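Record format v2
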Amino acid sequence: MAKNITIFTTNTCAYCGMVKKWLSAKGMNYEEVNLDEQPDRQKEAFEMSGSLTVPVTVITKHDDTREVVVGYNLAKLAPAVA
Amino acid sequence: MAKEVIVYGADWCPSCKRLIEKLNTEGIAFEYRDVEQAEIGNEHLGIAGNNIPEGKRGIPTIVVDGEMQVYPDDEWLKSRLDFTSDQTPDTKVHDVVMVGAGPASLAAAIYTTREDLDTVLYEKGVVGGLASITDWVDNYPGYPDGISGMDLGENLRKQAERFGAQIELGEVTGIKTADGLVELETTDGPVKAKAALVATGSDYKRLGVPGEDDYYARGVHFCATCDGAFYRDKRLVVVGGGNSAVQEAMFLTKFATKIDMLVRGDKMRASEVLQHDLEKFKDKITVHFNTSTDEIVGDGKLVTGVKGTKNGKQELFETDGVFVFIGLKPNTGFLAGTSVELDDIGLIKTNDKLETAIPGVFAAGDVRSGATMQIASAIGEGATAALRIREYLEELAR
Ligand SMILES: Cc1cc2nc3c(=O)[nH]c(=O)nc-3n(C[C@H](O)[C@H](O)[C@H](O)COP(=O)(O)OP(=O)(O)OC[C@H]3O[C@@H](n4cnc5c(N)ncnc54)[C@H](O)[C@@H]3O)c2cc1C
């Protein structure tokens, strides 16, 4: 199980909405960082993911290890939050 | 000890029926409370009221030993109830399964569910399809000031779900017929239905040049609404000269300070209206005709430029990123090896009833050969397909 989940999003990104919907349907809470509202955190999203894209989902596990999922990718998200 | 399970539902609600069937299959005892009875309706609102999304009825709602969940999914149920089978395969024969949940399927689902046909949609990407990732839609009738693509997609989803459409997030990987039924192979396992609608639309075409894969999402992009925000005060290259390329280049001026548009031919393919709009962005967008895109180069981490050939001469366009809009490729790969007939570009051939070569399998929207490739027409085709599917099912029942 995840200890906490952070999603980097933007206002116009439809795939971000899909990740949020999917997590909510699983009853999981997440913190959202909207890069349109907090552009100063873009660097952080890039450093975590190595990509200039959203959504970026950062899953912190109970042992404090981290998994980063780039894009809306259920094949990677599902095991990462399991 | 057995848990106390209460299900709030109504007889007209297909997802309630499904939940009940699931609990029965798993041998889980529960008490059913019909919210159509005023007293129970009030009781349900009392416990679930705050958790019901706007515009919805909030059923089924389940209460397991006092813990309440509106619209429980499999994951939620499995973690609270003793399901004996580890996976609950979808063994039911649905009336209709739709492949894709873009405008065409969502429109079709509004019609089929209102006719009380049990309808399941599979979507591998965004519910709302390409419409949902379009920044702004100005030509969809009924919205005098235009509407954001994301809102339009969301409205279609809500309307389809209101009547009971079930949207599953997963991909359909194959389709066949057996014993008069359509059998779909999905990432969640096989699914059976009496009829199917293929409305899978299309995906962005890739350039197929060196550097494109290496720098994917690190400077090479195919979705402006998704990734445009990373190019605030940066330089960009947009490849393409059609409607999408022009529309998206204009959207990207919200972020980028300078955009070079590389157009292979000697003129734009975009509509007159869009070309006229493009004129207004002259100070930010420079159009280069007769320019091919040959290679995307970078520093190993991010893109730094695009190598092209302009009027026969090689040129380097320095840039922080490249957005590629060179047209679309039909999503019909999963039909390979089936008897569904495709045209030269891979679009599905249908007759005037929107039937493909496989009985019971229909096609609508952008993926259909001869389609107009617009949201309004995709929605029209969805409605037509739904009515033809109903006729087909009536025929089948005779
Ligand atoms: C940049 C851009 C701008 C546009 N602007 C406009 C505009 O202003 N006005 C207008 O009318 N039209 C516009 N269009 C066109 C419009 O988006 C399409 O005509 C419309 O979305 C077609 O709907 P559809 O349902 O047929 O297909 P799509 O919208 O493409 O939906 C198909 C869905 O099927 C899913 N899918 C595909 N394969 C599978 C599979 N194997 N399993 C599960 N799911 C699958 C896809 O993920 C997708 O969500 C634009 C298109 C683009 C690209």
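The two ends of chain A are 5 Å apart (CA to CA).
Residues B 99-105, 122-126, 129-131, 134, 137-140, 171-172, 199-202, 244, 247-248, 331, 334, 365-367, 373-376, 378 surround flavin-adenine dinucleotide (CB under 6 Å).
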